[in-house]
Amino acid sequence: MISIPFEKHTLQNGLEIITHVDKTVPTVAVNVWYHVGSKNEVPGKTGFAHLFEHVMFEGSKNHDKDYFGPLQEIGAMVNGSTTNDRTNYWENLPSNYLELALWLESDRMGFLLEALDQDRFDLQREVVKNERRQSYENRPYGMAHLKLQELLFPTPHPYNWPTIGSQEDLDGAGIGDVKEFFRNFYHPSNSSISVAGDIDPDSTLELVDKYFGNLPPGPTINRFHKMDSTLKGQTWVTLEDSVHLPRLYLAWPTTPEFTQEQAALDVLSVIMADGRSSRLERSLVYEKQFARDIRAYHHGQEISGEFHIIATANPGRTTEEIYKEIQESLDDI
Fold it and tell me: Are residues 21 and 161 in the same domain?
């Protein structure tokens, strides 16, 4: 079992700081996590968490311009991501520029709204709408995941809608709605920051306190807890797409992450379809050659989980044949 030494502190405003020392190379990794994702949205206003990930790179009160520029000029790698449960922003950069990254992160945490105007908002909304087209609507098999999510977690489950949101909700989003979302979730008491690499923990903590310590904590947030899917029985849906080979998607709702079941389901996915010696890949891809490819994975999340098996049929083979083989293999477990 890998054990990574770290120190954890909490500022008076609720911001959690995690530091880890690794002086192998003179670099540092800064990662800011906000405990907000698409599950914190409401029907009719979906896609806000991911939209704000984009808006956060547009500039803030004291750095009122593109966020990438000053970091990429020093050779930093910069990005962010959004899931159902959280949003994060990260920089990997030379360790002597740590203070720059902390200043930029603190400025957009505390003073983003002073720089957010309608033009910037409209620009990033169009970027996100185009991302949805590229990643889902105009991609082969792309809409399958969006439909599967909605079937796997029927309303009112907050995993029912995709992180990317819908085109209709993105069109209907107003800058006032997004600002309210920021005020509710983007504040020190709903965030954590990790700093790992070529650092001194004490001086790093002082820097974090210098730039984040005066930011006010935000409002209390009503947290979601374990929420099972209300899916009852088996549901089948057929989608038509401009593809040459049919693909089968199987999914089951499971338990949240960090449960005993999560480890077992992770192991099951490896046994079923991870590599040539796995049961389904050996049988369906190499021996019987029913499938062009097959994979399985378990995705544990904060309030619920999901287990997937995905297989693409070979020419002349059907998804019904593949489903029968998969079901027989599962029955043997």
Answer: yes
- Are 313 and 246 in contact by the 8 Å Cβ rule? The answer is yes
Report d(CA 37, CA 82) in Å as an integer: 6
Q: Which domain holds residue 157?
A: 7-212
Nearest to 93 by CA among 195, 238, 218: 195
Task: Verify cis geometry, omega within 30 degrees of 0, for the bond prior to 315.
Answer: no
Structural domains in the chain (count): 2
Both 75 and 175 in one domain: the answer is yes
Q: Is the per-residue pLDDT at 1 higher than 80?
A: no
Q: Is residue 70 part of a domain?
A: yes
Six token digits for residue 127? 């970027």
Dig out the tokens for 158 from the structure: 């907050």
Mean pLDDT calculated for residue range 148-166: 96
* Residue of 192, 214, 202, 209 whose CA lies nearest to 15: 192
Give the residue from 80, 186, 170, 88 showing the smallest Cα distance to 122.
170
pLDDT band at 333 (very low <50, low <70, confident <90, very high): confident
Q: Residue 31, Cβ neighbours under 10 Å: how many? A: 17
Average pLDDT, the chain: 96
Could you give the CA distance from residue 84 to residue 90 in angstroms, rounded to a whole number? 18
pLDDT in tens, 214-244: 999 999 999 999 999 999 999 999 999 999 9
